[in-house]
Write a structure and sequence with these properties.
The structure is a single chain. The chain has helices spanning about 10-20, 35-45, 55-60, 70-85, 100-110, 125-135, 165-180, 250-255, 295-305, 315-335; strands at about 1-5, 25-30, 50, 65-70, 90, 115-120, 145-150, 185-195, 200-210, 215-225, 230-235, 240-245, 275-280, 285, 340. It is globular and about 60 Å long. The protein has 2 domains: about 1-120, Rossmann fold (3-Layer(aba) Sandwich), CATH 3.40.50; about 120-290 and about 310-340, 2-Layer Sandwich (Dihydrodipicolinate Reductase, domain 2). The longest helix has 20 residues, at about 315-335. The termini are far apart. It has a 9-stranded mixed beta sheet with strand order 14-13-12-11-7-10-9-8-15, covered by helices on one side. The model has no long low-confidence stretch (mean pLDDT about 95). Helix 4 (about 70-85) runs parallel beside helix 5 (about 100-110) and helix 7 (about 165-180) crosses helix 10. By secondary structure, it is an alpha/beta fold.
Length: about 350
């Protein structure tokens, strides 16, 4: 199938194109970017792949699907336009600023008879895949609670834009992980860290208490202004606990010049020193990790479009994540618990 990429900033160049290239089922038709510097980068990273000025020009070149990884403020209009043009769409996260807009995009996809899905690539991180394996093994017994932390020392990437904020950015990742691990969320308690004032006030950190339908509880937090890199996945159950603090392996590998297509033997595998630890009454042990690969999102998507499997991220899941983020923002602004979807 033929695929096109709309946007070639850090997201497009680091988190999409290398993984599309590694998914051999896809042919890259082109990339939309007007920046001369980014066109030079594209020529180095994907020789022969043309750059286009607009998404319409890319669609006219003949694509089955477009991946939209432009800034969040532009996402709604581009998704609607792509669906109107009759192509399938992958929207980067957050795929909508609020649940009402999310439902609008779902309705547009249904009218067009096209697939819309969301790039929740952190489901294919090694640490999260390993966590899911530990949970599925049943060794923890009944699950009680979890602690998920995604802190990044990334001051330069913080944009003081009240329409975005870190809750919609990193929060979309860790909330999705909490839901995938523990099930749907029914109630949220939240605190947000703020910078700026008035109409320019922007949330730059978050700490969420998620009450899951299953009866479990998760604490989810993130920051880019904390001056440290911290990834924590900890789950507590009736029979023990599992703790992982693995590095952001795939991002680090891309920054180091490695690629999943050309370095498959080492891709997404953390160092032994970073393996998670499982503790039960029978003792403790390090857990050999599952290799992560964000390219599996694109492989699974291809299979789904060919009628051979489910979508890697369903719209029901994507809308629920946005509903949880809406409830978190309302909780932080109003104080107290907020029911999800109300």
């Amino acid at each position: 199938m033929r695929i096109g990429l709309v946007g070639y900033g850090a997201g497009g160049s680091r988190f999409h194109l290398p993984f599309i290239q590694a998914a051999e089922q896809w042919q890259v038709v082109g990339v939309v970017t007007r920046s001369a510097a980014r066109r030079e980068l594209l020529a180095r990273e994907a020789p022969g792949v043309p750059a286009f000025d607009t998404m319409d020009e890319l669609i006219d070149a003949g694509v089955d699907l477009v991946v939209i990884t432009t800034p969040p403020a532009t996402r709604r209009s581009l998704v609607l336009r792509a669906l109107e043009r009759g192509v399938h769409v992958v929207a980067d996260k957050p795929f909508a600023p609020d649940a009402d807009t999310a439902r609008e995009l779902v309705a547009a996809a249904e009218r067009a008879g096209k697939v819309l899905t969301v790039y929740q690539n952190r489901r294919w991180d090694s640490d999260f895949l390993t966590l899911r394996q530990v949970i599925d093994s049943g060794e923890l017994g009944q699950l009680w609670r979890a602690n998920i932390v995604l802190d990044q020392n990334s001051v330069r990437s913080v944009e003081l834009d009240p329409n975005d904020g870190l809750l919609r950015d990193l929060g979309a990742h860790v909330v999705d992980q909490a839901i995938q691990a523990l099930g749907p969320v029914v109630r949220v308690d939240a605190h947000l860290d703020w910078l700026g004032s008035g109409e320019q006030r922007t949330d730059v950190g978050f700490s969420l208490g998620l009450h899951h339908e299953s009866g479990t509880y998760s604490s989810v937090s993130g920051s880019k202004l904390c001056g440290r890199e911290e990834r924590t996945l900890a789950v507590y159950g009736q029979r023990g606990s599992y703790l992982s603090r693995m590095a952001d392996v795939q991002s680090d590998q891309v920054k180091a010049g490695l690629r999943p297509a050309t370095n498959p033997e080492v891709w997404g595998v953390p160092d032994a020193a970073d393996w998670g630890e499982l503790r039960t009454p029978s003792g403790s042990r390090r857990v050999a990790p599952v290799a992560g690969n964000h390219a599996d999102f694109y492989r699974n998507l291809h299979r789904a479009l060919a009628g051979n499997g489910p979508l890697p991220v369903t719209l029901e899941q994507a809308v629920h994540t946005v509903e949880v983020l809406d409830a978190a923002r309302a909780s932080a602004l109003q104080g107290g618990s907020i029911l999800v979807g109300r």
